């Protein structure tokens, strides 16, 4: 809708400084109030079926009955408006519904600030400074709690039948429980679908990270429609591979190489880490499994006298470390590490790091869901080399993929 030039000139004829336009009593705020008032009057006319003072309204059984003063919160600050009412009391404005005190996406701003990890107190201070609006902690909780219905729907949504790769990991968050703060595990499942797009399949909260609970997680994934996973990339949690294969027996479990390297180097003094890391590299970058085993033996001969736990750890985990060696480079690059989910975890930790403790598990679900929604906006392209990887999957798993 275009605005006539003459109207603009009339509105700005007394303009002398930005304050006249944007100040507390400036033109913008006056216009906003006037337009809202006019719109509310138009809604009342539509509700009653006749204009104000129109004789057509006689004996209709309902009529205008004054106004109620209401203060709303807008992007420009507080605004006092007069909401018309009818004699029957059944008029409910659409522009500013009953009991609603925000206008023009104000609640969305609160949700966005909360999703970035800001505390209730910080949000209150920000709104007071930016919009000259005071809001209570209860009001902020009311706005953000509205997300929980969406969280429940998202957590129970149907999933694709096939995810070629799924990364499984957990982060720990402090939650207040019976006057104590306890660390609970938040389980995350990040899937790569057939198009190569990342998709968080769900989040779950439990007392500790354990294979038994992971079993319930993968069982839920199956109940929500997942029929097959080619490769599951996990950390070194004991019993994890068995939990996955109980539900998805054909799935190959790949332990994160980066986790293995980090755990190995924990035993090594700083001055020798670079050398040990270089020798470990010959193992996991070997072109074949046989060569990798030979290089592990060579590593043991060189370092077992100083650091015997390193080669022992690699040998104990060998069956779940070598699956990626059977694949061409296109797939190796995708499953080599759980960096995809570690990057996600890093983003989530930034959001929760300022929280001394969450009041409940629902509070954790709420803020992590909002944070995940922000993070996923950046997932606008498929995983690198995904087309080549899918071509290889089509050959390797020809009976388990629809072409």
Number of helices: 18
Q: Please report the distance between the alpha carbons of the first and last residues.
A: 49 Å
Biggest sheet: strands, sense, closure?
A: 5 strands, mixed
Strand order of the largest sheet: 5-4-3-6-7
Q: What Rg is obtained from the alpha carbons, in whole angstroms?
A: 30 Å
Number of strands: 7
How would you summarize this macromolecular structure in one to three sentences?
This protein is an alpha/beta fold. The chain has helices at 5-11, 18-22, 27-48, 106-115, 120-131, 137-145, 148-155, 211-223, 240-247, 257-265, 270-284, 289-303, 308-316, 318-321, 329-335, 339-352, 361-376, 386-396; strands at residues 64-74, 77-86, 162-177, 180-192, 198-206, 228-234, 252-255.
Write the layout of secondary structure elements.
Layout: H1 5-11, H2 18-22, H3 27-48, E1 64-74, E2 77-86, H4 106-115, H5 120-131, H6 137-145, H7 148-155, E3 162-177, E4 180-192, E5 198-206, H8 211-223, E6 228-234, H9 240-247, E7 252-255, H10 257-265, H11 270-284, H12 289-303, H13 308-316, H14 318-321, H15 329-335, H16 339-352, H17 361-376, H18 386-396
Parallel strand pairs: 3-6, 6-7
Antiparallel strand pairs: 1-2, 3-4, 4-5
Helix pairs in contact: 4-17, 8-9, 10-13, 11-12, 12-13, 16-17
Task: List descriptors.
18 helices; 17% strand; elongated; alpha/beta; 403 residues; single chain
Q: How would you characterize this protein structure?
A:
This protein has 403 residues and is of the alpha/beta class. The protein is built from 18 helices and seven strands. The chain has helices at 5-11, 18-22, 27-48, 106-115, 120-131, 137-145, 148-155, 211-223, 240-247, 257-265, 270-284, 289-303, 308-316, 318-321, 329-335, 339-352, 361-376, 386-396, and strands at 64-74, 77-86, 162-177, 180-192, 198-206, 228-234, 252-255. The strands form two sheets. A five-stranded mixed beta sheet has the order 5-4-3-6-7, sandwiched between helices. It has a two-stranded antiparallel sheet with strand order 1-2. Helix 4 (106-115) packs across helix 17 and helix 11 runs antiparallel to helix 12 (289-303). 25% of the residues are buried. The model has no long low-confidence stretch (mean pLDDT 82).
């Amino acid at each position: 809708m275009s605005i006539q030039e003459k109207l603009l000139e009339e509105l700005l004829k007394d303009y002398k400084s930005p304050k006249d336009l944007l100040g507390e009593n400036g033109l913008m705020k006056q216009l906003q109030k006037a337009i809202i008032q006019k719109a509310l009057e138009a809604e009342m006319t539509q509700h009653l079926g006749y204009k104000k003072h129109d004789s057509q309204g006689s004996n209709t059984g309902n009529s205008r009955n004054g106004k109620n003063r209401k203060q709303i919160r807008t992007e420009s600050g507080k605004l006092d408006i007069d909401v018309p009412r009818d004699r029957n009391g059944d008029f409910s404005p659409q522009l500013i519904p009953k009991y609603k005190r925000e206008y023009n996406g104000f609640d969305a701003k609160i949700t966005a600030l909360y999703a970035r990890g800001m505390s209730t107190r910080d949000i209150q201070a920000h709104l007071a400074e930016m919009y000259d609006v005071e809001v209570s902690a209860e009001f902020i909780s009311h706005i953000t709690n509205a997300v929980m219905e969406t969280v429940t729907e998202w957590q129970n949504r149907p999933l694709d039948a096939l995810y070629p790769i799924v990364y499984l990991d957990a982060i720990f968050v402090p939650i207040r429980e019976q006057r104590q703060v306890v660390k609970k595990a938040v389980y995350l499942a990040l899937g790569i679908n057939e198009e190569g797009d990342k998709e968080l399949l769900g989040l779950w909260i439990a007392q500790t990270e354990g294979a038994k609970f992971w079993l319930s997680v993968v069982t839920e994934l199956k109940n929500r429609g997942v029929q097959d996973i080619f490769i599951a990339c996990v950390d070194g949690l004991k019993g994890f591979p068995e939990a996955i294969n109980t539900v998805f027996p054909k799935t190959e479990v790949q332990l994160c190489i980066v986790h293995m390297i980090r755990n190995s180097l924990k035993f090594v003094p700083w001055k020798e880490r670079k050398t040990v890391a270089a020798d470990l590299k010959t193992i996991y970058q070997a072109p074949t499994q046989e060569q990798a085993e030979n290089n592990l033996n060579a590593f043991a001969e060189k370092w077992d006298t100083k650091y015997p736990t390193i080669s022992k750890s690699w040998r104990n985990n060998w069956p779940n470390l070598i699956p990626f060696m059977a694949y061409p480079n296109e797939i190796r690059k995708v499953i080599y590490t759980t960096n995809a989910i570690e990057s996600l975890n890093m983003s989530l930790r930034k959001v929760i790091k300022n929280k001394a403790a969450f009041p409940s598990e629902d509070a954790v679900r709420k803020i992590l869901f909002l944070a995940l929604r922000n993070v996923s906006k950046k997932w606008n392209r498929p995983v690198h080399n995904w087309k080549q990887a899918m071509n290889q999957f089509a050959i390797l798993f020809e009976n388990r993929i629809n072409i």
